[in-house]
Write a structure and sequence with these properties.
Number of strands: 5
Distance between the termini: 71 Å
Radius of gyration: 23 Å
Order of helices and strands: HEEHHEEHHEHHHHHHHHHH
Shape: globular
Strand content: under 5%
Largest sheet: 3 strands, mixed
Oligomer: single chain
Number of helices: 15
Strand order of the largest sheet: 4-3-5
Structural class: mainly alpha
Helix content: 40-55%
Length: 421
């Protein structure tokens, strides 16, 4: 028998050695996508693809919390106290909301049986009317809760009843996105009215509308740009909460957790962004094309950053809304998506507040206009979790009071600024 020092390696030692070599190789691959300091030259891209399964999704709660879509009763009570005390920024945000067209007592709903929305809402047969009536219903529901004046609850009910009596379908190329936008807002209004106001006789008809007209259009997602599917999942999650549909909730959350890692890049993903399973993005060239031609990646870059920051804002807003709703429901998704949301907000905010765009990023030019979308994520990650978020804070405070983007974002300085609940 040979001496011990000359023995052949055991299978265990061989596997350990191979594991160490693979770990080193993985480190070298990941190093090509390290965080790029703003304004400095970026590392050269590699040709290695990177894809990984989404983080595990917590199951739907055994019992849903109501009201519980984007805002909870405790959050609204906090806001009500601040508004009554005349404290800022809440009082200014409340005044802004009440002065908007969405709070008008003379608003008349404009429902349609079929809402037809083409690309960029061309044609626009009921698209704007539907979205704005949904925002108006939510606006009046908030006004009811904060003032306890019946007239606002009745206006919210009038708007919701008008649409639930008429709408049957969404058609044309933008139907999934339109359904996602309007379907994200309707449940917010319905949650507040159904669970804090007595006298909504058609509440069940409204639930039927959500179940039959909206949920089937959004719950299966989309293979379009990321903001589409994220908005659709926001709608699916909110509708599922209102319907107390655990199966639909779980399905939407699982799809959401597949999409978020494919929308916001982190250096821990490797040399290239993750992809949605089944997307057909298998090569580096395909992924780079999908990321608007961007071939160098840094923490917080999104799939649509090089398209424009307005559409990027839609995606990040939907991420924050789903995470916030899940937190209210006791099954928080912030542990799964919070780091991507934090970096995504920070990366875009850096350039929104005036930092020069480096040459490696989108050819040295960005189409700005992130929109009023930072309050929810900033409150959760800065005020609740203690992250600094310097650029996000600067942009958030500069934009206060945050109004509405006339699509699915509304009054988030009022509802979420420094809200501890």
């Amino acid at each position: 028998m040979p001496p011990t020092s000359a023995r052949r390696p055991t299978r265990r030692r061989t596997l350990l050695r191979r594991g160490r070599l693979l770990a080193v190789a993985g480190t070298l691959i990941a190093a090509s996508a390290v965080l790029v300091p703003h304004g400095l030259a970026a590392p050269a891209p590699t040709s290695t693809t990177a894809s990984a399964p989404a983080p595990a999704a917590p199951a739907a709660p055994d019992r849903f919390t109501h009201p519980g879509v984007l805002v909870s009763a405790s959050q609204l009570d906090f806001v009500r106290g601040k508004v009554q005390a005349g404290a800022q920024p809440w009082k200014g945000a409340f005044d802004q909301m009440m002065a908007s067209k969405y709070a008008s007592a003379s608003r008349t709903p404009k429902p349609r049986a079929v809402v037809e929305c083409g690309s960029y809402s061309n044609p626009n047969y009921g698209c704007t009317d539907e979205r704005e009536d949904a925002i108006a219903a939510y606006t009046n529901a908030l006004a009811w809760y904060l003032t306890r004046e019946d007239t606002y609850a009745k206006k919210a009910i009038e708007l919701m009843d008008a649409w639930s009596a008429v709408i049957r379908d969404h058609t044309n190329s933008n139907a999934p996105l339109q359904t996602g936008w309007a379907g994200s807002v309707w449940p917010r209004a319905a949650e507040i009215i159904r669970y804090t106001y007595d006298g909504w006789s058609q509440a069940d008809r409204f639930r039927t509308m959500l179940r039959e007209v909206y949920l089937p259009e959004v719950v299966n997602g989309s293979h379009s740009n990321g903001n589409w599917e994220l908005s659709m999942m926001e709608a699916a999650v909110g509708i599922s909460v209102h319907l107390e549909d655990r199966a639909a909730y779980d399905k939407a959350v699982a799809r959401f957790l597949n999409r978020v890692p494919a929308y916001v890049y982190l250096t821990s993903d490797g040399a290239l962004p993750r992809t949605v399973p089944g997307s057909g993005l298998d090569t580096r060239d395909e992924i780079v094309k999908y990321w608007q031609g961007q071939s160098t990646f840094a923490d917080g870059l999104t799939q649509e950053t090089c398209r424009d920051l307005t559409h990027t804002g839609y995606g990040l807003s939907a991420v924050s809304h789903v995470a916030e709703t899940s937190r209210i429901q006791g099954a928080s998704l912030y542990p799964q998506v919070g780091e991507r949301l934090r970096h995504g907000l920070g990366f875009q905010s850096t350039y929104e507040v005036g930092t020069p765009v480096p040459s490696w990023l989108c050819g040295g030019s960005l189409d700005l206009g992130l929109g009023p979308v930072t309050e929810v994520g900033f409150n959760a990650l800065h005020h609740r979790e203690g992250h600094a978020m310097t650029n996000t804070q600067k942009l958030t405070e500069r934009q206060r009071p945050a109004g509405s983007n006339n699509l699915f974002v509304a009054w988030e300085t009022l509802t979420h600024a420094e809200n501890p609940n």
